[in-house]
């Protein structure tokens, strides 16, 4: 088949699917933003076409409409790319795209008879789920009114879709019924053959001069030691490297960015008391300092800096390790040595890291919010706490660190549950069938 994938961060959620299609000899063209394709690289055998980063909405645009204007500009950038692509004679059998940023707005005009499959990641609703969930960041009427328009580019695209796919039942439940009627629930898939437990695993951290910051040294696929030369990113090594294994008390936390949507404020505010109870524990925190979701802090600081300013004088920073963004192999090594992995989230999109930690046999302590409840059953394949209940989170981690082996059965069931429902082979079979049904005219 000839297949076209459109995603600003191509391949994005289509990574494993595109790889499997290339191995099978299908012709794949991917479209994404130039800068993102350059940063991520191009999959071997795939034709990747980039478009320039679109302009943002103009300063005079009404703030309710800025997202829509940005989406139209991005959709127009994709349209220019499609003019060139179609001029070269490429007509796909199926188009798969993520409509969240406007890239799908004008695709139907170019391929009126080609099945369009669209990825449904999240649908915003005023006063529901993530909006107004956290009282520390209250919503207001102006924001609630604007939320109604936040989905505009996505909905206008989805109106032209022949079929939709959504990773989880909870995320699907956010969408209007007329979208759910043509939707299949298929997760992107977890590489459970790679994300495996290994009780003998270890990981080496190099503390840096910046207090509380470290770099991972020797996990496979990470930066070599020469990356730690003086002056690298202004952060020089300080002290001897530290090796952690399953014999140590290791609490882990991972998110793309350290922000309230993923509970960084709850986690950091809990750490002083945890260190008092377990001064020999190490806490390793993965994530960048930016903002993926919600508003950025108004004073220019990162959320990490804001909450560290509240707690740093109460923390032993020699046992706190902010490691930033790390290689996939390093993430696996970290999950393998984790005594307890903390995953907190607003009612929002479920992170891959939650499932990947469970696949590695990490004991996951998670918030009992909507997307998590679909995956974790308390006491069976993980442990749940109220998102805002720092005392409950502390008590749960205290119990685990006192007697880690008492929770080994939960670790085993966590791995088994991810393999059974979210394993890559299973999910790819379902994704392939969706594509084949679309190409064969077998969608409702």
How would you characterize the largest beta sheet? 7 strands, parallel
Query: How many strands in all?
Result: 16
Number of domains: 2
Hey, roughly how much beta strand do the residues contain?
A: 15-25%
Report helical residue fraction. 25-40%
CATH structural class of the largest domain: Alpha Beta
Summed up:
With 444 residues, the chain is of the alpha/beta class. Helix content is 35%, strand content 17%.
Walkthrough of the structure:
The protein is of the alpha/beta class and 444 residues long. It has two domains: 2-189 and 424-439, Rossmann fold (3-Layer(aba) Sandwich), CATH 3.40.50; 202-422, Rossmann fold (3-Layer(aba) Sandwich). It has helices at 15-23, 34-40, 66-87, 107-110, 141-150, 152-158, 169-173, 177-180, 264-277, 303-311, 328-337, 352-359, 370-373, 390-402, 408-422, 424-439, and strands spanning 2-6, 27-33, 47-51, 94-97, 116-119, 163-166, 183-185, 202-207, 214-216, 242-245, 250-257, 282-288, 320-324, 340-343, 364-367, 383-385. The strands form three sheets. It has a seven-stranded parallel beta sheet with strand order 3-2-1-4-5-6-7, sandwiched between helices. Helix 1 (15-23) links the parallel strand 1 (2-6) and strand 2. It starts with a strand and ends in a 5-residue tail after the last helix. Mean pLDDT is 93; it is low at 219-232.
């Amino acid at each position: 088949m000839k297949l076209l994938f459109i995603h600003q961060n191509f391949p994005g959620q289509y990574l494993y699917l595109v790889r499997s299609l290339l191995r099978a000899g299908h012709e794949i063209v991917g479209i994404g933003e130039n800068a993102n394709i350059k940063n991520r690289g191009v999959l071997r055998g795939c034709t990747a076409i980039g478009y320039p980063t679109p302009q943002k909405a103009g300063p005079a645009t009404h703030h309710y409409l800025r997202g829509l204007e940005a989406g139209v500009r991005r959709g127009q950038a994709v349209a220019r790319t499609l003019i060139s692509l179609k001029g070269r004679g490429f007509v796909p059998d199926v188009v798969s795209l993520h409509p969240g940023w406007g890239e799908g707005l004008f695709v139907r005009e170019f391929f009126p008879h080609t099945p369009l499959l669209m990825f449904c990641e999240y649908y915003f609703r005023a006063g529901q789920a993530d909006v107004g969930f956290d009282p520390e960041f209250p919503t207001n009427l102006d924001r609630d009114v604007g939320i109604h328009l936040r989905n505009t580019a996505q909905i206008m695209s989805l109106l032209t879709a022949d079929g939709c796919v959504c990773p989880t039942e909870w995320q699907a439940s956010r969408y209007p019924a007329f979208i759910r009627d043509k939707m299949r629930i298929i997760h992107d898939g977890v590489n459970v053959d790679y994300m495996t437990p290994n009780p003998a695993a270890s990981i080496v951290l190099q503390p840096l001069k910046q207090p509380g910051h470290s770099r991972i040294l020797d996990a496979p696929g990470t930066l070599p030691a020469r990356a730690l030369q003086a002056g690298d990113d202004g952060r020089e090594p300080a002290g001897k490297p530290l090796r952690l294994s399953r014999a140590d008390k290791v609490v882990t936390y991972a998110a793309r960015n350290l922000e309230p949507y993923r509970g960084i404020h709850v986690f950091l505010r809990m750490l002083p008391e945890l260190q008092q109870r377990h001064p020999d524990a190490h806490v390793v925190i993965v994530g960048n300092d930016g903002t993926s979701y919600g508003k950025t802090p108004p004073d220019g600081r990162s959320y990490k800096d804001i909450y560290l300013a509240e707690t740093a004088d109460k923390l032993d920073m020699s046992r706190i390790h902010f490691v930033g963004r790390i290689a996939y192999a390093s993430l696996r090594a970290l999950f393998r040595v984790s005594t307890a992995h903390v995953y907190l989230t607003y009612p929002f999109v479920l992170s891959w890291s939650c499932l990947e930690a469970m696949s590695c046999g990490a004991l996951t302590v998670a918030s009992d919010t909507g997307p998590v409840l679909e995956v974790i059953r308390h006491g069976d394949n993980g442990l749940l706490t109220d998102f805002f209940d720092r005392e409950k989170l502390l008590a749960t981690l205290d119990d685990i660190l006192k007697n880690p082996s008492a929770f080994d059965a939960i670790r085993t069931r966590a791995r088994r549950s991810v393999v059974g429902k979210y394993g890559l082979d299973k999910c790819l079979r379902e994704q392939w069938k969706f594509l084949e049904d679309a190409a064969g005219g077998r969608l409702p």
